[in-house]
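CORE FACILITY INTAKE
Project code: CF-77B
Contact: R.S. (postdoc)
Sample description: multi-component assembly, two entities in total
Requested service: structural model of the whole complex
Turnaround: standard
Below are the sequence entries exactly as provided by the requester. Do not edit them.
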Amino acid sequence: MAMDETLKAESRLTPHKRVVVVGASSGIGAALAQQLASEGYLVAALARRAEVLEKVCMQINEAAGEGAARGYVHDAADHGEIPGMFQKILRELGGIDALVYVAGVQHPVGINEYDIEKDREMIEVNLLGAMAWMGEAARLFEQMKAGQIVGISSVAGDRGRVGSPAYNTSKAGMNTYLEALRNRLTRHGVNVLTVKPGFVESELMRKNAKMVFGVISPEKAAKDIWRAMRKRKQQLYTPGWWRWLMLGIQHTPSFIFRRLSF
Amino acid sequence: MKLDNRTDKLLPGERLRRLENFGHSIAKAGYVYRPVRVEDAAKVFELSRESGARVGLRGSGRSYGDASLNGGEIVLDMQRMRRILDWNPETGVIKVEPGVTIEQLWKYTLEDGWWLPVNPGTMFPTLGGCLGANVHGKNNWKAGPLGEHVLEFTALLANGEMVRCSPKENSELFYAMIGGMGLLGVFTAITLQMKRIYSGKLRVKAWAEASLGEIVRAVDDGKEEYDYIVAWVDCTAGGRGLGRGQMHSANYLAEGEDAQPTQSLRIDNQVLPDTFFGLVPKSALWRLMKPWTNNGGWRMVNTAKYAASRTLGNHKSYEQPLVAFNFLLDYVPNWERAYGPGGLIQYQSFIPKETAEEAYREMLRLCKRRRLPSYLGVVKRHRPDKFLLSHAVDGFSMAMDFRVSERNRTRLRKLTAELDQIVLEAGGRFYFAKDSTLTAEGAARFLGEAAIKQFRKLKGQYDPDGLLQTDLYERCFGGG
């Protein structure tokens, strides 16, 4: 091997960081996996749909070099599988420096619909899956006195609305869980970032949102998230102006909010 | 693309620990198991089979590189198997478990007049670790590596078999497991021949030498006369002073030379003082060193040390306790912490006597040119041995400590790759206890095809499922 090639490869002096992206087959997950790989991360990409995942991994490996991404087929609602999957990835990557949880489902529900099956799935994927993955990562990072946990939540977690009670609940739960992890782990040198995207171009958004505005691409969201990760921020609204909009919405008094129909 | 979702037996998450190398330059997670008995170790091999996680062996974690790390997998920490099983003060034969440290050993045998014939620069490693790396001391050209003083050992191989090995019995395995970096099996008991001594003191001489050439000649010339010889090299000096430094030689005292051996052999008279100049507590010293650990600061320290060696006590002879001379590195507890959060690496190369001086001169110049001078250089004399993965040559070694920081990582990486080329071209070798930068290609080049082939053959035979592995194995042998 020529010296230049040798120097490009990973070494003990210049190790690559390793990130686990749960929900990497589309939208923000795929874009963020791509972004992190281009920043020199080795990516363990997880998703339910094998063929789509394979395609995403191939794209990453083409752009960032062979071996930059490995795919693992996983359903985030299958909580029993998570501890074993985490160990397998830890073993195969030799270490984990960051966990990004992106997996999420949102079922469209009518404003007078109460469907426990739909609601259960949202809680199982958006909240319980996140807790199971983040719990595994938290235990490792606490020991390592280093690491980064990134939860892709949503502006939808800031208030309960008529249109999506269970989805709001799942994201609000995630925000609270992330906050608790942050309070537990900051003292151990671990960074916990809560990401609250607004409208991001995706299947999930197309299925659900009736009134959309200020839509951004997943790539733009991924860039914002990477910047926040690098700066070890605690919270990120993407795009940034949602922070001010949500400040208004959070402070809208209930007697007004309960008369609104969005 | 991995689509295999079969989950193996889970490892308990509460066993996860952060493990570091001695240089604090690498940190890895590992599921740590600490066996008390041989059966416990056997159970961990069984767990490895069921879980799919492989096992790395670790003693005190005193190797500078990645030899005792096994990122994300099982780490079998042998420190609890630390019983002394048998001791014969008549013959000096001692049988110990692998977790016994050098400190434990000398404290046990010294008052009977026996000393470990080969000691590394620190007393904290375990004997299992020392044999895995087949360590040497400042008397390598005379006493060989530690492995030459092993009468026999028993080991649990990765395939579950218990074996007894000596230079006569299972000799192939004897010469491969000693120096084999814990990749074939785990030592369960080690029988050593200690060395008879007649005093707890050594007669030490110290003198300055003004250049690398003089250092190399002094180390070589001392071969006959001295029992130990070592040179400190000021790697920050350039020009005519390139490679200047200070020599230390030592001799055992013969029977009768020490009028009161019972006094000098007492443990109390060997222990390192806990303050410097009777004032500064040594546990705090590394913090005082920290502000100096940069190119400018260390150059001043080295220059002052060299100036002192030329004036104070130059060519004087004095008596020094065995412990103080042998375990220089333990003088300042936690000295490695002075290198800051990035830690340090040591680059040690072993070069045949014909090419060593020229190669070392080139290496020192290169480090200076790259503005990455080593803060500490040490030169010693060596001779070859019969072990399969040997680092020894009929020649010299030079060890260089480098600070690792976020700013210099990439440049240091490049420098070590360039140094590798110089060493390999000079017919040199490397030492797995120290190394953290060699590539698999470099390892193959210095060990030679035959040795690698033989090692792989033994690995396939005694560890057919590849249970034993470390980060070092992955790096230098491509994980097999």
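Facility notes:
- Residues 84-196 of chain B form a domain with the Uridine Diphospho-n-acetylenolpyruvylglucosamine Reductase; domain 3 fold (CATH 3.30.465.10).
- Chain B touches chain A at residues 1-3, 5, 7-8, 10-11, 13-14, 16-18, 25-29, 51-53, 65-66, 71-73, 345, 404, 409-410, 412-414, 416-418, 421, 436-437, 439, 441, 471, 474-475 (CB under 8 Å).
Invoice: internal transfer
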